[in-house]
Design a protein that fits this description.
The complex is a heterodimer of chains A (109) and B (114). By secondary structure, chain A is an all-beta fold. Chain A contains no helices and 11 strands. The radius of gyration of chain A is 13 Å and the shape is globular. Chain A starts with a strand and ends with a strand. Chain B is mainly β and 114 residues long. In chain B, 0% of the residues lie in helices and 53% in strands. Chain B contains no helices and 11 strands. In chain B, β4 and β5 form a beta hairpin. The chains are: A mainly beta (109), B mainly beta (114). The interface between A and B is medium-sized, with 21 and 27 residues.
Chain lengths: 109, 114
């Protein structure tokens, strides 16, 4: 079983749709959590950190459920420019990062 | 603007060659990382370093070594390249901190081993 698991998708949604991605992790000692975005043929870039209380950045909402060991990313009012691969990242206390394989989103007009 | 640079965007080498991939960051970050990214396998950590001259094995260190002689530079070495090391190699850096911080990635080096 992988340490970090994501639904690979692809998710194909129309503009304006709401889409949610989930990610589960196996290491209960994990300390910090992130969502990264990777565009085609580009490097990953931080989208947002994920906090226990949940956090929102515009159309994006991230949540963490430590008891069930999963994190989620919700995108509201999808835009064409949201098309990308979204990577779930989990860090241990030692600072080692484990990346999920990514979920591919395509937003269509 | 923060920046991580990698020495080559594309590299073609032959089986058995020694290959050096260089990474430089200008953010004075303590931590540096080397990953490879393959379709269906995601990003996998090869080696990381928390400080100059320090290194830690990641999940797939076999066939690789690293060097960190200066804080800003982290080199990945393939002692004897093999075809199964054909991949996209990504370097990243981050500030030190409990639990880890945002990682900044370089543009990647696409290595082909013939």
């Amino acid at each position: 079983r992988k340490e970090v698991e994501q639904d690979p998708g692809p998710f194909n949604v129309p503009e304006g749709a709401t889409v949610a991605f989930n990610c589960t992790y196996s290491n209960s000692a994990s300390q910090s959590f992130f969502w990264y975005r990777q565009d085609c043929r580009k490097e990953p870039k931080l989208l947002m950190s994920v906090y226990s209380s949940g956090n929102e950045d515009g159309r994006f909402t991230a949540q963490l459920n430590r008891a069930s060991q999963y994190i989620s990313l919700l995108i509201r009012d999808s835009k064409l420019s949201d098309s990308a691969t979204y990577l779930c990242v989990v860090n241990t206390n030692a600072g080692k990062s484990t990346f999920g394989d990514g979920t591919t989103l395509t937003v269509k007009p | 603007d923060v920046k991580v640079t990698q020495s080559s965007r594309y590299l073609v080498k032959r089986t058995g060659e020694k290959v050096f991939l260089e990474c430089v960051q200008d953010m004075d970050h303590e931590n540096m990382f080397w990953y490879r990214q393959d379709p269906g396998l995601g990003l996998r950590l090869i080696y990381f370093s928390y400080d100059v001259k320090m290194k830690e094995k990641g999940d797939i260190p076999e066939g690789y070594s690293v060097s960190r002689e200066k804080k800003e530079r982290f080199s990945l070495i393939l002692e004897s390249a093999s075809t199964n090391q054909t991949s996209m190699y990504l370097c990243a850096s981050s500030q030190a901190g409990q639990g880890g911080n945002e990682q900044f990635f370089g543009p990647g080096t696409r290595l082909t081993v013939l």
